[in-house]
């Protein structure tokens, strides 16, 4: 990826304000959501990266769809559009040459988000 020197951890990558508002600042619930993200989402992003490398576009589309809800719930704005592009293009098998860079970006941002949540 050409832009691998971009520092995604300079700012807060996610926003819990919507979850806190909906669940009346229920810290136990927020902790469960964060733990679920940390424990499962980076692994799914890595699976998507591996599927992309293998040219398994059906799996890439499936995993992008799965990741989309976590990205939306946690308001990870920097990859909101990217995950939709990945899902659509993988499922339609179009503009496939642009997908590896987008998939790698999503993988990096998700890993950095999980790291921030652990801090």
Automatic annotation (TrEMBL):
InterPro entries xref list:
HPT_dom_sf, Sig_transdc_His_kin_Hpt_dom
- Give GO BP annotations, semicolon-separated: phosphorelay signal transduction system
Q: Which Pfam families match?
A: Hpt
Q: Name one GO molecular function term.
A: protein kinase activity
| Ranges for domain HPt | 35-106
In Swiss-Prot or TrEMBL terms, this protein is called HPt domain-containing protein
Q: What is the lineage of its organism?
A: Bacteria, Pseudomonadati, Bacteroidota, Chitinophagia, Chitinophagales
């Amino acid at each position: 990826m050409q832009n691998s020197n971009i520092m995604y951890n300079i700012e807060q990558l996610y926003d819990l304000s919507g979850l806190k508002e909906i669940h009346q600042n229920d810290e136990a619930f927020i902790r469960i959501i964060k733990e679920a993200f940390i424990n499962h989402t980076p692994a799914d992003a890595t699976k998507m990266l591996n599927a992309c490398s293998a040219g398994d576009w059906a799996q890439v589309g499936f995993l992008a769809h799965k990741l989309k809800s976590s990205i939306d719930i946690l308001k990870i704005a920097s990859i909101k559009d990217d995950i939709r592009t990945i899902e659509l293009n993988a499922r339609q098998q179009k503009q496939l040459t642009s997908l590896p860079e987008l998939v790698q970006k999503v993988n990096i941002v998700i890993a950095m988000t999980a790291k921030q949540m652990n801090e």
